Amino acid sequence: MSKQRGQKIAPVPMPTDISVVDLIDNYFTAYNSARLREICQLLSRDVFQGDVTVGVSLSGAMTPAGFGVSALAPLIRNGFIDWMISTGANLYHDMHYGLGFELFAGSPFLDDVQLREEGTIRIYDIIFGYDVLLETDAFIRKVLQAEPFQKRMGTAEFHHLLGKYVREVEKQLGVKHSCLLATAYEYGVPIYTSSPGDSSIGMNVAALALEGSQLVIDPAIDVNETAAIAYNAREGEGKSAAVILGGGSPKNFLLQTQPQIHEVLGLEERGHDYFVQFTDARPDTGGLSGATPSEAVSWGKIDPEELPSTIVCYTDSTIALPLVTAYVLNQCQPRPLKRLYDQREVILAKLQKDYLAAKAQPSVAQSTSQEVATYPCGTPIKQ
Questions:
Q1: Which residues are catalytic?
Q2: Which of 62, 220, 233, 366 is placed for a possible disulfide with 67 were both Cys, Cβ 3.0 to 4.6 Å?
Q3: Which DSSP helix (H) or strand (E) runs through 274?
Q4: pLDDT at position 65 over 80
Q5: Helical H runs in the chain?
Q6: For residues 170 and 94, what is the distance between their CA atoms, to the nearest angstrom?
């Protein structure tokens, strides 16, 4: 018998009153169910305990299906998510709920030509009126004309302000916990968007620019702030965790924080301590969405010593996220809020100070590279 054997698989009939923890711990025995079980147990045992800074990346149409409110917001309120990177589309469609609009369960087999004629939008099996888009756009444009938005800013500040206005709408409607953006605002969780122009929110920002708006979304602010968060996570005995829902640009933006620290800024870093991902993307096509943790080690994104603490579950995030949320809410005590949004300036200043200090004392290799660089063809470039 192999010495690498794990826990014995001892199947027993499932009871009628089974809990989600019992279901996952005792009946998710192999294949991707076992990977989901391992993620739930790792999050509960290590990641959501102690001084771990947890970053979550979000891609795929999760918020139109309600998972921003039902699964992610409770994790924020319980202190399990410290910062996020999301597609702009997820934040845009999340706002529909915060503004009191209605989305409905439909079918993926509806007649889309007829839906277009009726003014109905379809996201696979979710349907809602075209007026929901128009009303949300109108709200965004109205809010973005306010004085606080008339400046250059990063997406964390942008979304914080947007969440503040949505929270006010919630109060007027007499509801709470109806919107991920409003929850993040309330609990001090910064949310970044790696491609701020690639959503209806970005489209409305662009439209206002044609009218003379002074709002400018600066991606460089986001790159530096997210790197500062990852750098700050290692203060004392702290660790950094990357929890990835889907893949795409948000996954890369979360993981690139480590190469930004050591490759570009020249500061010592060892990569994220924990890496868990839910994805349906294959690794053999070369896309980032399917790239494995071991491949990320080669880039310095993941600490090689922590490779056993990296888990990929190949499944639909809409299946995994509600199960994970239910499991950890049952198993873990709430953590104190880090409120990283409020600490952004302080931790960025620390990163900048250390970077400038390191740059002032370059290594021999750095000194040589700063004197003369070359194009691939060999033409020297004086610096």
A1: 301
A2: 62
A3: strand 274-279
A4: yes
A5: 20-27, 31-42, 67, 73-77, 88-98, 112-118, 130-144, 155-173, 180-187, 200-209, 219-232, 248-255, 257-259, 293-298, 317-331, 340-360, 364-371
A6: 13
- pLDDT score for 249: 87
Provide the domain count of the chain.
Answer: 1
pLDDT over 80 (residue 158):
yes
Q: CB within 8 A of 127, min separation 6: which ones? A: 103, 104, 105, 106, 110, 115, 120, 121
User: 212 CB contacts (<8 Å, ≥6 apart)?
Assistant: none
CATH code of residue 355: 3.40.910.10
> How does strand 126-129 pair with strand 191-192?
unpaired
In this prediction, residue 247 has a pLDDT band, given cuts at 50, 70 and 90, of confident
**Strands 239-245 vs 152-153: parallel, antiparallel or unpaired:** unpaired
Q: Provide the 8-state DSSP code for 258.
A: H
Residue 293 lies in a domain: yes
pLDDT digits (tens, 9 = 90+) for 73-87: 999 999 999 999 999
Q: Which of 2, 72, 47 lies closest to 320, judged by CA?
A: 72
The verdict on residue 208 lying in a domain is yes
Nearest to 31 by CA among 358, 312, 379: 312
Range of the domain at 167: 42-382
- Predicted confidence band at 9 (pLDDT cuts at 50, 70, 90)? confident
Query: In which residue are the tokens 């996201």 written?
Result: 123
- Those residues with Cβ within 8 angstroms of residue 264's Cβ, 6 or more apart along the chain or in another chain: none
Domain membership of residue 6 (yes or no) is no
Sign of the dihedral through C-alpha 344, 143, 207, 84: positive
Pick from 160, 119, 169: nearest CA to 139: 169
Q: Which residues pair with 84 in a beta bridge?
A: 56, 191
pLDDT at 175 over 90: no
Q: What is the pTM of this model?
A: 0.88
Is the Cβ–Cβ distance between 349 and 62 less than 8 Å?
Answer: no
Q: What is the DSSP letter of 106?
A: -
